[in-house]
Specification:
The structure holds two protein chains of two kinds. In chain A, 9% of the residues lie in helices and 40% in strands. Chain A is mainly beta. Classes of the chains: A mainly beta, B alpha+beta.
Amino acid sequence: MNRAISTGGGRGLPTAAAAPEDNSQFITFTLCEQEYGVDIMAIREIKGWTETTSIPHAPAFIRGVINLRGIIVPIMDLRARFGMELAIPTRMHVVIIITIGTRTTGLLVDAVSDIITVAPASIRAVPDMGAADGATLLTGLVALDDRMVSLVSLEHLIGNAIAQMPAAETRLQPAA
Amino acid sequence: MATGHFDHLKSTYFQECGELLDSAYASLTLLSEGRQDDDTVHAIFRAIHSIKGGGGAFGFDRMVAFAHVLETLLDLLRDGRMQSTGAVVGLLLRATDALSDLVAAERTATLVAQGFEDALLAELGACALQGLGVVPPPVPRVAASSSPPGAQAVLYTIRFMPHPGLYRNANEPLLLLRELKRIGDTTIRAELARLPSLERMEPEDAYIGWTIALRTTADLSRIEEILDFVSDDCDLSIERVPDTVEIAADDAASPAAPDTLSIPVAKADQEPRRGEGYVAPTSVRVDVQKVDRLVNLVGELVINQAMLVQFGALLPPDVCPGLVGGLATLSQHLRELQEGVMAIRTQPVGSVFSRMPRLVRELSTQLGKDVHLVITGEGTELDKTVIEQLADPLTHLLRNALDHGLEAPDQRIAAGKPAQGTIRLAAEHGSGRIVIEVSDDGRGIDRDRVLAKARQRGLIDDASTPSEEEIDNLIFLPGFSTVDVVSDISGRGVGMDVVRSNIQALGGRITVHSRQGAGSRFVLSLPLTLAILDGMIVAVGRECYIVPLTNIIESLRPQSRDIHPVAGCGDVVAIRGDYIPLIHLSHHFDVPGAVSDPARGMVVVVESETAGQVGLVVDELIGQQQVVVKSLEENYGAVDGIGGATILGNGRVALILDVAGLRVTHPPRPQSTHLVQERWR
């Protein structure tokens, strides 16, 4: 981890509204000045950007794979995934490593900003605005002072990405 | 005991049975070849004894009874009271086959036909008696393993002296005493001699022994069976009290037979108890995943160390001389660690070889051919995963050798060869790979017939005249079979093409050498492990790819005049008169900034079972390296043309090409190659 995260712990949120054990914690990050949140329980680690090895025939939002202590982990460009232009990664960019089921993936984001605690009641549904692809990848919206945080559905994010990957017929059998 | 735990114990037992049977077969093979030493028979005995012991615990009575009789015969051999003649070894082999069938039946919970083992039991019994110089009794009497009809009560004195640790192994003497009481009249006397004073007594130790006088009609093996569980945890002696001599005299028809058979049985079970034949377990069972995790971690350490060494080299040498020396030692230790960890995954290839004698035995009987199977190099070690996947191809090759390769005895004699054919199965290490050979001294490949067949099937051009070697290799083509009559043994449509693709899936190669009339030799060259692969690192644009060395035929820098475009098919390169289709890796994988003119880059000619030869256009060759194969699918998915990934010394990921998969998305058309390529899968 090359970057400290400020542990705000529910800054300005109506945390008293629900029993604390129902609350979920999210790590928030920014993409093009917009704030997003992912479930903290899915996050394995946060690291700085490193050069990737590109994968042939991959969707544009898959930047390639990196070596995470011996495991090959694909890196998804979240800007591109949400329909924005590809990120031009610098040393300041951050990769959030998440694990969903048995799959480990890295999410390339602009910067990590905060940890927030959210009561279920304060999560608002995503309004139906003509079903842009990006909208289905969100589980809800949270108001935070004067900001808005979009909560990302990691299941959809990873699941849809798998569906978009081309299937292959033959491969080597790795031993591990 | 929870069922889950019990099932687990059971599956461990069956796993052990497999290994024990393998070792028994291996020793029997030594025996049959006259290469035995003092320990060979002991080893077989121990294997059968362990199978029997464990089987008793799970209540596999039928199997246990069979193993018991087999063990009796082995005991005679062990004591030198019998010679291991060819006939005896043959019988032992057949008995071991039957035992493995019985074990398999218990494992799959299927029922073996009643009377399946009776004939063998009778044969084993008769053989044991002959060994003792006793005329065999009528067959049914020996076959019946319980007390012979009309047997009289016999008095036995059983001394049962538990070792202190008896209770710790979950034994309960009371149950045994009750069980003994159930088969006859008992008088039990406790032996308190070893009972210490109270203050010196360990609460969990066993101190009391028993002397049991048992009058029973059941035979000795039944008593043995009851006491079998505790046999390792006590001093045990079972003696027949000779006050019933007149009974044996009464039974004049078959006087000593049942008893003579019993005596060696008693000995057989006592010997391991005394610890004489006992071998302490020298291996540990470990989950493969745990080993893989170690392999991964060590791989990471190696990369880390490479980085440290690079940084260390940047320092002026006089700044910290200790660091440089320390790094060198670290590198050396790491290399040893890596080799050691890799070695954990390896196993002797004998575990798959030992299944082959049975196959050959059964097939040769079925085919009426006399075959001698010679196995060498069974101690050669290679990766467990590779070994497991070798069984099918080897079985197929041996079947082929027996069915198609070797002639019938009369034909062999007519050809001036010994009537007995020889099949060799050999393994050896060679330059970081393992080489396995399956050869026979049969008729060899009939090239005229192969050629005719290939033409008939349209596998080859009528006009072409392939070389002898090319003809031999035709047998690896899909849909090829020279056998006119589909026999029961081979030629069931599963051909050599499957063998070849199996071997290639393991990163290996198979070649055939044949001399007409003198036999054929199939040579399999396999990597020692699937986790490591020898690869050539090639650069394409700013990416690096690994081409498995097994696929590479040659690499060259072509002249511009050798490159020809073919309409609709891309380019071909002319190499020694052949046109090899080219695949531009940069186009194929969409890598920017790569060399597009093959004459300015390099062409790596690769071959795979599906694609034949193709030339890969790359920017340059970077070097040859052993790489650790990692899964790309685990977190991403399968990619056409990519077999896996690896981590280079600089910590970056490089993708490993799957040459066979490359073609699937870019089928090359052979221009004037001899063979018609078929897409198949």
